[in-house]
User: What shape does this take?
Amino acid sequence: MKVLVAVKRVIDANVKVRVKADGTGVETQNVKMSMNPFCEIATEEAVRLKEAGKATEIVAVSLGGAQCAETIRTALAMGADRGIHVQTDVELQPLAVAKLLMAVVEKEQPGLVILGKQAIDDDANQTGQMLSALLGWPQATFASKLVLNDNNTANVTREVDGGLETIEVKTPFIMTTDLRLNEPRYASLPNIMKAKKKPIDALTPEQLGVDPTPRLKTLKVSEPPKRQAGVKVGSVAELVDKLKNEAKVI
Amino acid sequence: MSILVLAEHDNTSLKSATLHAVTAAQKIGGDIHVLVAGSGAQAAADAAAKVAGVAKVLLADDAIYAHALAENVAQLIVGLAANYSHVLSAATVNGKNILPRAAALLDVQQISEISAVESPDTFVRPTYAGNALTTVQSSDKIKVVTVRATAFDAASETGGSAAVEKVASAGDAGLSKFLGQEVQKTERPELTSARIVVSGGRGMQSGENFKMLEEVADKLGAAVGASRAAVDAGFVPNDYQVGQTGKIVAPELYVAVGISGAIQHLAGMKDSKVIVAINKDEDAPIFQVADYGLVADLFTAVPELAKELGK
Assistant: This one.
């Protein structure tokens, strides 16, 4: 079974994001960029399926400007076999990403597409659900465990509000990753070197027949109100007294 | 203008998240209809009919809706959506699972987790773990929106007298099947609607040590939460996680114990009214957002706190 993994380039999770003074977006100049952490988990899961002999090939797809190729290289260094880079400088919103991925899926015919449940930049949590809708495939979102069965089905355990839930889906299907699915590996130096030789195909939205024009217009990006640090208390008794008599919350 | 709000419920009762989504719908303005998709869900529909501001309840009662499988519920929404200017849901796990699927089928770019309504087509939503607030305007004919419950007050559970209208099932897509669940039973309030939350982090060192926090929580009538580190370490189950990609909470009082305060955790709790931090590391970032900070070893401070609250 071929597995397709979608990977997104985002501001690194450890960077303190700053809103631009003119309110048009956030600072990305000279800011460290990385693969979205949930996409790392998606890539890791695909690599583990291949190591277990359940996946035959892993294709890593990223969409966006020239530097997304670096993110694809990261996936290749983790163990993906080849990459597809859909190149565009248009701002991509989840519906457009889903349409572009659908076109790639139709070309590649994978049995499973794994995506992160959410990108830590736009925090939208939509693309996997939208892709499965457009393809008419089942969706197994917020996955913490995947078991592929022999009869063209899979059991996926999902992180839900009250705990865990297990569903059975028919293949082909879409899975989106939650944090407990696995712990992604660090790429080794030899694998990083090897990844440089793996092929990355470039495509454009035009070639895929998709219009990626955004539907949402960003009017303003602003900084949220800042919380001020309060006071340090010297003892538990003082804390309880403040909560009772000053904050009046207990 | 009419607004369809997808109810979060367990067939017998309505979850409070729905009440917050109804308030967001009121801010948009228009007739508010609540869709209850469930199995044996008359009681939940009746509860929805009593919510202040609800004009009509649509009840789709079918065994296929028993576990809110996204493929089936999205299909139901798509069949009803043509009558509405907006489709809303609270940004619960179900809402996040179902609404984007419905949006894509309607060829709509969903607006996720809004924290404010500027106008019927313009909304504010937190991005970058809440470090930026983005105002977006939608050009889509139907607006599909999920709502951050903590950003909107709960609508009153009483005062409404809407009619409950049965709607036909949209049928089983036959793509997925519910097999089972592991749900933690607790007497404590729900994390996302509790008035007080007591959370533990990596500093708790073990799941066993969370009993200390539970004792404090029970004295306060609080829910127990955790940071990602504590969940990843296996101290507590996944549904305890408060943060950017876990649960978003904004209680009257949030007590963070042994939590350093990573950006991703702060994203889930920084809108709490009063924040208390107990940590032995006085440089922990959690103190930068805490109203009351106590630099202390939690293993002495927490039992002392339980004792002090018992007085």
